[in-house]
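Internal ticket - ligand job 561, zinc ion:
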Amino acid sequence: MRTGAESTWRVTWRKPFVRRLALLGALLLIVAGSMLLKSGTIAFWQVASGTGRLVMTIVDDTTGVSTPVRIRLTNAQGEPVVPPDNALAVMWGRFDAAENFASLPNGDFYTEGAFELTLPAGIYQLRISKGYEYLEQEHEVVIAADEEVLETYRMARWVDMPSRGWVSADDHIHLRRSPRDNPAILGWIAAEDLQVGTLLQMGDFWATYYSQYAWGLDGVYHVEDRLLASGQEDPRTHERGHTISLAADDFVRLEDPALSQGPSGYYYYDQVFDRIHELGGMTGYAHQAVTFHGYRGLTLDVLRDKVDFLELLQFCAADGPLHTDHYYHFLNLGFELTATAGSDFPWCGRSPNSADPRIGDARFYAYVGDEFTFETWRESVRDGHTFVTSGPIVELTVNEAMPGDRVDIESGSALRITARAQGHATQIPLEELEIVAHGVVIESVSARDPNQSSERLAVTMSLPVDHGVWIAARTRAGPTQIAHSTPVYVTVSGSGFHSPDTLEEYLDLSGQYLDELQEEIAQPNDSLDHLAWRDRDGLEEQIAETREVIAKLRRELGDGE
Ligand SMILES: [Zn+2]
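stdout (structure tokens):
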């Protein structure tokens, strides 16, 4: 579409008289514009084209009630507009610095469901989104001078997981929180259609960031079908990884290491984990244990039964969001590990080096059934009833058991495995669904197969087993759209579920990771990213304990297989 101003200019070039008149007019506008510009009230080019008003309401298609959403509104140059005064505003910033509050990192904003904006006349691109279960909308909005555009948009779902007992969570959001911040932060969570937002107080060797005002149930803010809860990303070091603890009744940090010249204790993660468990919480490693040498810490703490979950899906690591190497390593050694996911907002983002961190871009679902409370959610995560996703839905049962469950059978009997993936033809077009056993794909269907589609993939299979095994489902859709379930753990007459095929390989690898850490702490080092040597004695003890576990597994599982 062409604006009136542009067509006027086109005509003037052909008619010298009109052209002179127009130039005179333009001169007058420049003078008037500069005067207005000086007074700081309005930009010059707005005078030339005028301003109009946009009045927008967004409602849920099912209820007809206004609903929080994410808005991207850009002008003809592709620049995001200044958010409306009533945009849902929360101060955010990396390392707790105040970077912005109403505008999100890429210039989007969150609205509770209605807003008004005065905008220079022109054509705007509008994108409305609300997490993954709702269909995104894109519109062109034309603002004409002195006119008002009234629009109501209806947000429709393509799938409704809460109605089936599954609630979504982001386990990794960094926002400072006082009780007064709760409504706005919950608005952000609602605009990304998460049911649970866990806000992580972050720590490092020297300090803590993103303070939370209360812990456990006292720190839960629950309104209707959504809640906020406190957690921590601490301890967090370069040499043995970043950890997350969820849903504990208190923040746990060993005495301030920065005050100590000798052993600091900051690297004794296991002491924090033990205390978190006493406080009813759950412990895990962040960033797929890929970055910050998280796999070293994972080795120490999974093999000594200190860890409940791994953050399996996230966009921070390169080639994300799914990294299964360290996950399959410890599952194959016969250790249960629940899959969780989170954004690490305000860091990361969907594309490499992108300025587009988004709450909920990686999320995980937990099955709570009919009753959604903080306690039922915590119980569900503790039981491992989860899958992680950046879009598609994946569900799995093995002999009717769900992810996180244990199924014990007699040797030689057959497992009945069913898996189902759901997507949407344009927004989340499914490609394939895979059944994974001991890290190996044992069955796979594609959207091009008979009776399968880009919206629904299904597998039903029978698998005779004579030894323990873990079985998971994973599905792929469009670029970076992926989902992975926590496994169902199958044991045979009370056995374990480790993989005999990879046992030696993964025990050796575990030993190598311990060697790495031992090398790391061997010599004093002045670099800020290498302080673990200060806690050498305690770490040597932990390493020795873990080596004993490795030797025991080699002895007990390695023979007779
Ligand atoms: Zn981290």
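Auto-summary: The mean pLDDT is 91. The pocket of zinc ion is lined by residues 233, 236, 242, 286-287 (CB under 6 Å).
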